[in-house]
Amino acid sequence: MTTLGTGVLRVRHWLRDHPLALDAALALAVLVAMIVGSFVHPRPGEGPSFGTRPPAASGVLLMVAGAVALIWRRRNPLAVLAVTAGLTVVELVKSDPPAPVVMATVIALFTVAARTDRPTTWRVGLLTMAVLTAAAMLFGPAPWYSQENFGVFAWTGMAGAAGDAVRSRRAFVDAIRERAERAERTRDEEARRRVAEERLRIARDLHDVVAHHIALVNVQAGVAAHVMDRRPDQAKEALAHVREASRSALDELRATVGLLRQSGDPAAPTEPAPGLAVLDALVDTVRRAGLPVEVACTDRRPPLPAAVDLAAYRVIQEALTNVRKHAGPGAKAEVSVVRVGSTAEITVIDNGSGGGCDGDGGGHGLLGMRERVTALGGTLTAGPRYGGGFRVHAILPVEARTAESGKPGAAGRTGEDA
Fold first, then answer.
1. Given strand 343-350, what is the order of strands in its sheet?
2. Beta partners for residue 381, in sequence order
3. Could you give the count of Cα atoms lying within 13 Å of 72 in the half-sphere of its Cβ?
């Protein structure tokens, strides 16, 4: 059953991508139905009989022409309707025995109603019904009051009504889909706007807290250094102000950062932030999970700055996690940490077949790595490798910002760069 369902879906998708083939198949089916119907001979009072009178050659030609015209029903529905209606009128006037060419007209009228607007459907439908019914009553072989003539009226009317219903349902479904997409976009935009506003507010609060209290600490520390030898009591008072300002800054920072936490969040860890010093433990954990990892690391002394060290560790951790999740069975990973001048280059590659992207999380792992590296002034590139596998490469500055921090006015330049 699964194989059958998959085959049906494939056929539907193929027909949807090839509408001309679908219309050709429909035209062939209509032609078969018209030819079969042409062998039916209605006999008043006795009921219809089959095969007693074969269709004439002219009738077969009209049926073939009507069916061929249906192949282009999507491209120009009004023209196809005009052609099939004209062939039907010719069949009603000239053919004896009659051939059911009106079937092609019914399909063409349905297409016009389904692919145009309602006023056009009303005008064209009523005109088609009137012309074909009048031709059947005036020129048909049966009396004007026969049920065959009223059958032409009924079938054309039902074709127009069915096509209009299909068009209305299609428009209704499209409107619901468009409304849902618009609501989704509006909700996402509203969420992003609120997040941006909250980030801006928290950033302003942090800036105010840090700027105010650090400026106060700087001034009081300068006073303490200036009067340390001559006025130790005043120096102690200044240091007390420094201590009070730092405590107040810590309290306000804790309160501001606490806004980012929720009631269900776990408590903050008390151990130091991880870094390359515990890279071996991370690699051992990944190896125990079944992923072979090779590490090539230059001398880790002097140690990296804390922020850079943490970023390097997180990049390696996330990259190895993605390899384990997405690279497939039999994959191997290589980790390289190299100090090149004032930068540290972190490279994680694998030879897997599934790619190293963060598919389950919608790409948030790679996005988080890129944001973390960019925040330090570095760059990160990630993508498939030639010949298979995935590669993550990060370049982190080591000395640029730390060296400038000791120069006068470095803080101002950093703020300008930001």
1. 293-297, 333-340, 343-350, 390-397, 379-384
2. 393
3. 13
Name 346's bridge partners.
337, 394
Enter the tokens of residue 195: 């997040």
- Cα–Cα dist 370/313, whole Å: 13
| 90 phi and psi angles, rounded to 5 deg | -60, -40
- Radius of gyration of the chain, Cα coordinates, nearest whole angstrom: 40
pLDDT digits (tens, 9 = 90+) for 199-250: 777 777 676 666 666 767 777 788 778 778 788 888 788 788 777 777 777 7
- AA letter at 259: L
Predicted local distance difference test score (pLDDT) of residue 405: 41
Q: Please report which residue ranges of 18-117 form alpha helices under DSSP H.
A: 19-38, 57-69, 77-94, 102-115
Residue 359 makes CB contacts below 8 A (sequence gap 6+) with 325, 326
Beta partners for residue 397, in sequence order: 343
**Element at 340 (helix H, strand E):** strand 333-340
Peptide bond into 302 cis (omega under 30): yes
Main-chain phi, psi angles of 49, to 5 degrees: -125, 150
Name residue 338's beta-bridge partners: 345
> Which residue from 193, 186, 205 is spatially nearest to 249, judged by alpha carbons?
205
Q: Which two tokens stand for residue 69?
A: 């015209």
Q: What's the predicted TM-score (pTM) here?
A: 0.46
Find the DSSP H helices in 98-231: 102-115, 118-139, 147-227
**At a CB cut-off of 8 Å and minimum separation 6, what does 161 contact?**
113
Handedness of CA 137, 143, 148, 150 (dihedral sign): positive
Taking alpha carbons only, the member of 366, 359, 390 closest to residue 380 is 366
